[in-house]
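subagent[fold] <- orchestrator: predict structure for attached chain, return tokens only, no commentary.
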Amino acid sequence: MQVLVTGGAGFIGSHVCEALLNRGDKLIIIDDLNDFYDPKIKQANLEDIGKLGEYKFYQCDIRNSQELKNIFLKESPDSVIHLAARAGVRPSLAAPLLYEEVNVIGTLHLLELCREMPVKNFVFASSSSVYGINSKLPFSENDPIERPISPYATTKRSGELLAFNYSHLYNVPITCLRFFTVYGPRQRPEMGIHKFTRKIFNNEFVEVYGDGASKRDYTYIDDIVEGVISALDRPKPFAIYNLGDSAPILLNELLEVIEQVVGKKALRKFLPDQPGDVPATFASIELARKELDFQPKVPLKIGIERFVKWYREKIYT
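subagent[fold] -> orchestrator:
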């Protein structure tokens, strides 16, 4: 299969691209290599992907509809995995227009191309943040979503709604995947586990927002990749799935696990709750189990051990 992956140089994208090459798919990567974090990190990810096989790479901003169209006309992808986005709840509070342009308008450009040049499947990376301050736990795909509390969350929900439009109106097969706090090797440097590990290694203060009682459903990257590939291989007219570990843990408990693995205590600095952060995430994955054979295999302690090993070898040298 000829698969086009947007955001393929990023954290999740690079792992998905490796999985595609490992099974023999032809790979096209689109990424704008922006400066949200050091572009050298993405360049290194692309080099790692290249060790597994050949692929075509286009440095392209998904807001550029003409450039995207030229790529589609040239490559004629069979399927699209759309991972490109401006990520992160907190940064979206400072740049809501940018998040709208990339995450909504950029997604709309891709959907238009998939309508004009039909694809077998369009897999869209959504987020657990769309559930907002939903008080019902665990979060189910059938829950009403009425209170997202960040521009990032709102753009991801908008992407899902546009996806439904294009499925319903134009028969584009689309699967939306709600990722729950993905971690593992190559995790972006501003994300919690990476940031906590770095600061513990460097004897810096670890900022804990609130009292450390917030809960997150941390999901190891290998499990997420399996879910993405399964969704790619099982096109539906339209579907939404949670992809999470379904085992949320307190922030304080997460820090304790990282401390144990690193072998050093964190210097905690408690700060007020951050606007836009939700108190808890918890995925119901019954639907993904049933329809995607999704079954998380990597428990948190083992996942943290793998991440810290990668960090020691690649970063802390």
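orchestrator: received. Logging for downstream: The two ends are 39 Å apart (CA to CA). DSSP finds eleven helices and 13 strands in the chain.
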